[in-house]
């Protein structure tokens, strides 16, 4: 580009992963044997890296490429933008590679499609005077069509209809170059960023003629406000005085932004488009340009169209050029997720926050994305994927909740680091790595205190996911693996007696006991400090003790009577999809008896567990071993497995929370099996996320609130119960 070189490259990263494997127990006394074997193995994963260098340091950039990225097989380097021509000879000489230039607009569109599809909180609206500077948008499942307004030296307006179909529909010669050029003539300031700095301090009304300057007030007949600009630089024709550089820069900025805004609105209206994304060096995360463009679009569209900006706008061309070079590997067949541990985050526009980071090298310094081995799809049972928001509370907006949860995660950090180190007793550097993890996550939390919008909308889910990313970065794939192994083994020994106790009850009494068992099992959550403290200090704390902790009915949210009535009077459900939460007592003594009851009613069951570890949540591979062991004890589970009436699937997630919009695979069967009941259990999946999720079928959302602050906020006490039975409107 004109001032920055953006580099995109692919690498393979070696990570440790935890694996579980069932022991061969044939002919052995297994009473005191562990339930399964845990091993830590190396796994190769794919990662995309995006880094920025200022063009002043192009030699440093090329040294980095030569030292780290070029091997003997590399013959060609893909490049796009003005620098692909300007630095072509230097690149070829320094790297010994042929520069293959790609079309700028094609690369921009490819890059834009990629980030819109893969990064949930990519798009934001800018609101300078609001409590929340950046208002992040929910990604629509269908990203097309949209208008891309690229403001470089001039303005290009492109209509994008599909992955490969786009057309240039208009533009203007009055763009960023005009602002820079005229600004330099007016103020003698040669640097673009300095010109914007002047504009941010200026008062345009000293230079511009307003409607009230012409008519003495508002022009009521046409509905024009008195403060509206009637003529840019209009006062300079009559005023006999010198104007300040700041005021002239501000007037010029408004003039050009308003012109671009009106042009974009007219094209959007002409082509019936309501999504306009702005990019180019004129935008580049500068608050003053985002603000003026936003105002202009709002004014000319009468509030019907929103000016939208992209977190990673500066990388679009580089991403597109990379994708062009990697076409034979078909990168679009995969889904990619942002790695919070390696990405630097969107910086605040306030000069008071981290002044060292405000050197304008663009909004982003570094972005990393990890490849997911299969494409992610929406849960087909969502009522409307386009309006679904997984998270219950937006911490970017809610300052009180944000302060509480950031403090909560800070206070828990030492315990998590200690647990991580203890999970690898044979590793000589476990303590050192645990300390590096602690420091990295602590720094992330401090960044989020200052700029909560750094990675998009801040939520409890994103705080948990960032912690998991940091743990993985320092090779702690599953700190709770030994805890889960032990708790699964203990719970399995109690399974038959729990079933016998349930089977001895009358039908109605049994239904309540099953629900109470589900809730009691959900108490065993090592992610909740109130519970982990009890589990650390009272090893004998078990299923019955958990039941005694539960709130008595009526519960904080209580639609159990409606659920019971549905079971009594309605036909059996065709198929239930159950999202399990914790290992041990939760899945074995809580979920499986409930699953068994549904199977006995003639309902097929799909049991969905995390693909990867998070806290003490049960993983898919652990659930296979647990289910196999339960089937050996219980004929109902055994026959359901054999006849495929009980299916185990993985969600594609490694989070304690649950995003039904784009975080799932393996759940296509939910549609095939005519699923008419979804059960979501646990604080992370049913309260922090999905509390307000609307589904096409009946749903049960149940959890025990194991956090006193959250309980108080919801009007209850610790160990209050949420039991939410919902039936969709016809």
UniProtKB/TrEMBL annotation:
As for what it does, the entry says: Phosphatase which shows a preference for 4'-phosphopantetheine and its oxidatively damaged forms (sulfonate or S-sulfonate), providing strong indirect evidence that the phosphatase activity pre-empts damage in the coenzyme A (CoA) pathway. Hydrolyzing excess 4'-phosphopantetheine could constitute a directed overflow mechanism to prevent its oxidation to the S-sulfonate, sulfonate, or other forms. Hydrolyzing 4'-phosphopantetheine sulfonate or S-sulfonate would forestall their conversion to inactive forms of CoA and acyl carrier protein.
| Cofactor(s) listed in the protein's UniProt record | Mn(2+); Ni(2+)
- Tell me, what is one Gene Ontology molecular-function annotation carried by this entry? hydrolase activity
Q: Record keywords: Disulfide bond included?
A: no
Main location group: cytoplasm
Q: Which organism is it from?
A: Manacus vitellinus
Q: What is the lineage of its organism?
A: Eukaryota, Metazoa, Chordata, Craniata, Vertebrata
The organism's superkingdom is given as Eukaryota
Q: How does it assemble?
A: Homodimer. Interacts with PKM.
Residue stretches making up the Damage-control phosphatase ARMT1-like metal-binding domain: 409-716
BP terms from Gene Ontology = coenzyme A biosynthetic process
Protein's UniProt name: 4'-phosphopantetheine phosphatase
Q: Where is this chain's protein located in or outside the cell?
A: Cytoplasm
* A GO cellular-component term linked to this record: nucleus
What reaction is this protein's catalytic activity?
A: (R)-4'-phospho-S-sulfopantetheine + H2O = (R)-S-sulfopantetheine + phosphate; (R)-4'-phosphopantetheine sulfonate + H2O = (R)-pantetheine sulfonate + phosphate; (R)-4'-phosphopantetheine + H2O = (R)-pantetheine + phosphate
Q: Which UniProt keywords apply?
A: Acetylation, ATP-binding, Coenzyme A biosynthesis, Cytoplasm, Hydrolase, Kinase, Manganese, Metal-binding, Nickel, Nitration, Nucleotide-binding, Phosphoprotein, Transferase
